[in-house]
Amino acid sequence: MNLSDAERARLQQQYPRAGYWFGMLPTHPVIHGPPINGPHQPQPAQPIQQQAPFQIPVGPDNQQHYRRNYEIQHPAQLPPPYPPPPPHSDVQGLRGVPQVPAPVQAPPSAAVPVTFSLPLNTNVVGGIVTRVTLSLPSDLPFQDFFSRICAHMDLSPSSAILGYKMTGDLVRTAPYRLMDEEDLRNAMSKAVLKIQRARTREIIVEIHNLRPAQVAAQAKQAAHAGRKPGAGSAGVSDASEPSTSVSFAPQLRRLRAHLACQRHGGKPCYVDRITAEHKVLSVFDLTLWAKSMLLDPINVTLTRPPSTLQFDHFRIHKRRANREQNPQPQIHFHLNGIKPASSRARRPFSAKNSDPVIDLTGSDTESLDEPDQVKAEVKVEADGKENWQF
C-alpha cells in the first residue's frame, strides 16, 4: 500500500503497532526497537487528567468517620465512584439486606399399592386353608386396615391376633406382629422399599392367623331331604358302627421321651442289649412300638421292644471264601465175563468150563487163544469220574 510521507509519519506516531501488523510500516516499536543510528523522535506528552478522590459509600450516620479514616490518596488506580444502592434492594450492597427465599414444601408422596395374601378357613379345626390376594394402599389407617383383613378372613376384630411375613423371608422365620399402628407402618415401609427396589419379582405380604383354630367342623348332612334313614353318604360314619381306629398318642409321646438320644441330637435310638449299638428308629418303628404297647402292655414296654426283625438280635455269619481245589476223579470197576473163584467148586465138572491147554513149545509172542478174553475199558464220565469196564 503506497502512503505519502505525511501519512506514514502520522501512522508511525499514532498506530505504530497496528501499522506493522497490517503491513503498512516496516518495523515494530517493541520487536525491532528504535533505530540505533536514526534520529530520536520524542513522543508528545499527554496531560494526565486529575480525578476526584474515591470515597467509600456509607450511610449518613457514619459518613464523617469513614471520610476521615479511609480517604484514598491515589485515585488514578481506582474505578470511578458509584452511588450507594438504595436500602432494601435486591443488589448486594453495604445497606442491602439479603432476602431469604421461602421454604419450598415437598409434594405429598403418593400412596403405593401393596399386595396382601390372606388365608381363609384358618379358624376351623382341620379345615382346608386357601389364600386370596388383596391390594391395599400404603397410607391406610390401622383401624380400617384391620377391619378389612378380619372381614376377609372371617375373624372377630376383638379377638384376632395377626402377623405377617414378606417375600424373601425364610420359611422357619416366625411371623412379625401386626397389632397396632406402629406395626402397620413398619410393615408398609418395608413393603414399599422392597417394591421400589424390585425389578421383576412380585412383593407380597403374607398375613398369618396367630390364634389356633377353635371352631369344630360341622358334620356333613344328607344331600336330599327325602333320603331314607341309614342311607347316608359313604364319607359319614354311623354312630352304631364300632370304631376301627385307636389312638396311641400318649404311648408314642412317652416312647419318644424315653428313647431320645443325646449322642444323635435328640433322635430316638434303640440300644442293642448285646452289642450296645445305637440304631436310629424310623417313624414306622416308633409307631409300631407305641401301638404294641397299647395292644400288648404285658410283653411290650418302654424297655422291651416288640418281637420283630428290627429289634431282635441275630448273629450274622460271614460267608467264607471257597478254596479252589481240584476235584479227585472217582474210579468205578465194572467186571463183565469174569466169574468168581468159588463158582467153579459149586458147579459140576464139564469140558466146556475146563481150563484151556497151554502149549509151552510155541512162540512167546503169540497171543493166547482164550475163549473168554478179559477186556478192560475205561470211560470218563462228564462229571470227571472214571469208570472201568472189563
Task: Describe the protein's architecture and organization.
The protein has 390 residues and is an alpha+beta fold. It has 8 helices and 10 strands. α6 crosses α7.
Oligomer: single chain
The span between the termini is 159 Å
Q: What is the ordering of alpha helices and beta strands?
A: HHHEEHEEHEHEEHEHEE
Largest sheet: 5 strands, mixed
By CATH, the topology of the domain at 113-213 is Ubiquitin-like (UB roll)
State the CATH architecture of the domain at 113-213. Answer: Roll
Model regions low in confidence, pLDDT < 50 over at least 5 residues: 89-96, 219-224, 230-237, 370-376
Shape: elongated
Mean residue pLDDT:
73
Biased composition (Pro residues): 77-88
Region (Disordered): 74-97, 218-247, 342-373
How is the topology of this model organized?
Layout: H1 5-14, H2 16-21, H3 63-69, E1 113-120, E2 130-137, H4 142-153, E3 162-166, E4 176-177, H5 181-197, E5 204-209, H6 249-259, E6 269-271, E7 278-280, H7 283-295, E8 331-334, H8 343-346, E9 377-380, E10 386-389
Parallel strand pairs: 1-5, 8-10
Antiparallel strand pairs: 1-2, 3-4, 3-5, 6-7, 9-10
Helix pairs in contact: 6-7
